Amino acid sequence: MKGTCPICDNQFNFQDDLEVSEIITCQECGSRLVVVSLEKNKVDLEEAPQVEEDWGE
Amino acid sequence: MISIGLFHSTIRGDEKLIIKAAKKRKVNLKLYDIRNLILEKSFFPFDFDIALNRSVSNTKGRYLTAFLESCGIKVVNSLSVTQNCEDKFFTSLLLKKNNVPTIPFAIVFSLSQALEFVESVGGFPVVIKPTLGSWGRLLAKVNDKDALEAIIEHKNHFTSPHHQAFYIQKYVDKNGRDIRAFCVGNNVIAAIYRKSSHWITNTARGGKAFNCPINRDLELICQKASLAVGGGILAMDIFETKEGYLINEINHTMEFKNSEEPTGVSISGAIIDYCIDLFQKNKI
User: Fold this and answer.
1) Which of A4, B26, B69, B181 has the lowest CB atom count within 10 Å?
2) Measured between CB atoms, which of B19, B133, B204 is closest to A53?
3) Chain A residues close to B56, C-beta within 8 Å
4) Pick the CATH number of B3-77 from 1.20.1260.10, 3.30.70.3040, 3.40.50.2000, 3.40.50.20
5) What is the pLDDT along chain B (284 residues), one digit of tens a residue?
6) Minimal Cα–Cα distance from B190 to chain A, Å?
């Protein structure tokens, strides 16, 4: 599965176990990204949401 | 075959491990992003046997658990455990009530009350932290009266009223490490030392994880603490002192991705096994 970093255009090749809502880090620019959709081997990525006050364990 | 509803928001490394463990056990795991759900019966997909709440947002997670329990669904962790653990003051009160060794604490509402408490625990330093929060956010080690005044003044300008209830703990010198113990049911399945040169040792803040052997004293305090808050799947943060172990906090949606490798324990597997076991016991 392939995708592109929306910040720096880095190209990704993903493993098959990728999930929608998964957080990944772009190795090129360090941006935190989230998988928004997985369709026909195409992965759509967006910048991940900022950490909110009630996030945690 | 049992079907587990895994309720998540962002999928972290921890959820990936849970997905993998479920596959290994041939459990039907159904993933739901809480942010896409309407918490009302007619809208809700009730096509699972038991729910595992892994929300990274405490607010969304708590409402989801309350909703599911109201519909008769078993949730890991339960609403009462969630409420007992997400608020640090509630946790501390339950630990104290059940004679589980913990750190001296109080909630105060003013600077003068804070100073009174500080004196009662032998003076500075103390730690001020939000009652609701995680990952070491907004923790302050307060070394003197000037710093205390500044922090309370700043907190009084925060918009959320819960920041104006000042949760204070006596500062405990951890010698660069604390313990994170993982409890599933009433079993302590693994523990790590979290080491850091900073006084905050959370792995989310750069603390490094090393295996911590589980001795009988550690096991006993964890079991006591687990019972005090209602059991389930919990992570205990523990300080080592000359007087023995002290429970600092208990986490009800624990993160463990950095702990499977140093401990050699499949924490994700234990979580899935616990859900299966709970569902089967509940069915009988």
Assistant:
1) B26
2) B133
3) 55-56
4) 3.40.50.20
5) 899 999 999 999 999 999 999 999 999 999 999 999 999 999 999 999 999 999 999 999 999 999 999 999 999 999 999 999 999 999 999 999 999 999 999 999 999 999 999 999 999 999 999 999 888 888 999 999 999 999 999 999 988 888 999 999 999 999 899 999 999 999 999 999 999 989 888 887 888 999 999 999 999 999 999 999 999 999 999 999 999 999 999 999 999 999 999 999 999 999 999 999 999 998 75
6) 17
| Optimal mutation site among A19, A20, A21, interface B, most CBs of chain B within 10 A | A21
Q: Which two tokens stand for residue B20?
A: 């993998």
B105-170 maps to which CATH number? 3.30.1490.20
The Cα of A14 is separated from the nearest Cα of chain B by a number of Å equal to 14
Q: What distance in Å separates the CA atoms of residue A21 and residue B9, rounded to the nearest whole number? A: 7
In chain B, what residues touch A48 (CB-CB under 8 Å)?
A: 10
ipTM of the complex: 0.85
Q: Within a 10 A sphere around the Cβ of B180, how many other Cβ atoms?
A: 27
Domains of chain A: 2-47 (2.20.28.160)
CATH number of B85-100+173-271: 3.30.470.20
Domain boundaries, chain B: 3-77, 85-100+173-271, 105-170
What is the three-state SS of B176-212?
A: CEEEEEEEECCEEEEEEEEECCCCCCCHHHCCEEEEC
Could B10 and A53 be called an inter-chain contact, meaning their C-beta atoms sit closer than 8 Å? no
Residue B272 to residue B221: CA distance in whole angstroms: 24
